[in-house]
């Protein structure tokens, strides 16, 4: 038997209708009391503070303020923080877990569009689509059918990081005939083999992966030990005409070293994230013909955003009926995840 919970929505006001469109809001209202939609962006506001006092579950999203100690003090009934987005690292303080509050994230849902973007980028990169599109504009059409370094057949793709997204990317690429490599110090060979249906993925050291891959796609978390993971030395290991795809975090790659490699024409890059972000006007990565920069669009956007809300509402329903939450985040995971 389910209980009626009291929920507060904390995210940017302009996001509420996308994350929780009317059918989802109606479904949420059947499980939780929402006196009015509080798209809270400041927990210190008097009305928000008053509502916190009776809140059982916070439904959070982009733009939510940090759930820190004084917020927890103001919400003595709080049982769960359900994040209708990805990482919770910047959202909650460690004491959330100390106080027994459950933390759930829709990160697994958000990983799907990132993986779809990545696979599309890998396939187009193998065709040299981005470089050749610029060449077509500047020099006109020519026949590329016999160009030896164009095409995806027999190519090797290296995946850096067996994260949620990295695992999806490997599974999606398995049917395209690529040789697949993965580098992640947290998994075993048996675990790596289980990531793709036919087991045909090789777990290798990062340097080996870089030297052997035609396309490298980055899916590692940004941690103190991974900042600048792909530095000048490691980027130099990439074969000539390799393509580097990054949909994880810009700071995983040494930006100056990447500019140097791409400006020389030795490698190409597809970047949905950069360091800094956004890049300043006129930055070399925005003007190089062999680099495609997109404005952090790989994750859920537009019609995809409601899937995050759907996951969040389902988590509230599970909480109300005593079922385990599917997106639970453990405190110890923060040290190794994005």
TrEMBL record:
What residue range is the signal peptide? none
NAD as UniProt keyword: yes
Name the Gene3D superfamilies for this protein. NAD(P)-binding Rossmann-like Domain (3.40.50.720)
Location of the D-isomer specific 2-hydroxyacid dehydrogenase NAD-binding domain = 122-298
- Which keywords appear in this protein's UniProt record, sorted alphabetically? NAD, Oxidoreductase
Please name the InterPro entries in this protein's record: D-isomer_2-hydroxyacid_DH, D-isomer_DH_CS, D-isomer_DH_NAD-bd, NAD(P)-bd_dom_sf
Pfam annotation, one family: 2-Hacid_dh_C
Would you tell me the protein name for this molecule?
Answer: Hydroxyacid dehydrogenase
